[in-house]
Amino acid sequence: MKTRVTFQKMKREQEKISMITAYDYPSAKLSQQAEIDMILVGDSLGMVVLGYDSTIPVTVEDMIHHGKAVTRGADDTFVVIDMPFMSYHISTEDTLHNAKRLFQETKAQALKVEGAGEVLQTIERLTHAGIPVVGHLGLTPQSVNVLGGYRIQGKTKKDAELLLQNAKEVEEAGAIALVLECVPEPLAELITKEISIPTIGIGAGKHCDGQVLVYHDLLKYGVDRLPKFVKPYGDLNDVILKAISDYHNEVKNNQFPTEAFSYMMDKEELASLYG
Ligand code: KIV
Ligand code: NA
After folding, report:
1. Are residues 154 and 266 in the same domain?
2. What is the number of domains present in the chain?
3. What is the pLDDT of residues 15-53, one digit of tens each?
4. Ligand 1: nearest atom to the Cα of 21
5. Which sites are catalytic (predicted)?
6. Does the annotation flag 44 for ligand binding?
7. Which ligand is nearest to the CA of 83?
8. Is the ipTM of this complex over 0.95?
9. Using an 8 Å Cβ cutoff, are 160 and 187 in contact?
10. Among 11, 65, 150, 267, which residue has the fewest nearby CB atoms (within 10 Å)?
11. pTM
């Protein structure tokens, strides 16, 4: 099992870190088989698996339910679980209670939280309690209604300065890695140089220490539109739609099941059943 020490070494030696999201047993198992370095049980779960239009409805129960399936499928891979919307904002007690459940019940290796500011305390507290934390800055989808949409972040000098400062604060608070979502490549490059924990980019260019993509996006699986930063490495929509249509048509046309897919029985034995 890789650890934060492994990822720190990978940054130092400029070996890129591959990360992918997974939400269930088969996606986790195949990701581990492909030798992915880190799996994220993202709260993108809400959109790509549960059919919500944002990550906001996702609950701690949802994350535990799917997180457990993922760690069963990828028992030898570093798994990070997203703390969902408002599960780390109400009070310290509530935050620690939720973090304890997410970490203990899923048997994951780390939790991820979005933002800086008051969240820095959360990163510190969880780290002190023995829970490794991954930060997440730039486009932070749980704040989509405050940000005013899914848009690139850190484009002005002022926003870029704040993002750099927040990245340093997240490191200072004890985070083991930092996800940078939708930030200009040169800014992500600067942040990657200025902090000593690994940066994992999504829509943040090639200079990050690692990359993360959403499972369903990179496979074109159940999603129609892909953001600019997603490269589709497969087209499961086509594959799955064709297979299900073929099955449907063969049932309608009495082409399935043939003898090859049926259990046979001696005619005489059958005759006895008719009495
Ligand atoms: O939920 C998620 O999939 C994420 C990644 C996009 C980083 O947070
Ligand atoms: Na997320």
Report:
1. no
2. 2
3. 999 999 999 999 999 999 999 999 999 999 999 999 999
4. 3
5. 181 (proton acceptor)
6. yes
7. 2
8. yes
9. yes
10. 267
11. 0.96
Tokens 């019940």 map to which residue? Answer: 105
Tokens of 180: 């940078």
Active site annotation includes 181? yes
Q: Which residue range(s) make up the domain with 167? A: 4-234
- 235 annotated as belonging to a binding site for a ligand: no
Q: Where are the alpha helices (DSSP H) in the chain?
A: 4-12, 25-33, 45-48, 60-73, 92-106, 119-129, 144-147, 157-172, 185-194, 215-218, 236-252, 267-273
Q: Is 210 found in the same domain as 132?
A: yes
Q: How far is the CA of 256 from the centre of ligand 1 (A)?
A: 41
Give the pLDDT band of residue 269 (cuts 50, 70, 90).
confident
Question: What does the block give as tokens for 1?
Answer: 């099992």
Based on the fold, state whether residues 18 and 138 are members of the same structural domain. yes
Q: What single-letter amino acid sits at 191?
A: I
Do 96 and 151 lie in a common domain? yes
Find the residues whose C-beta lies inside 6 A of ligand 1.
21, 40, 42-44, 82, 179, 181, 202, 212, 214
Among residues 181, 194, 250, 268, the one annotated as catalytic is 181
Is 188 in the same domain as 267?
no
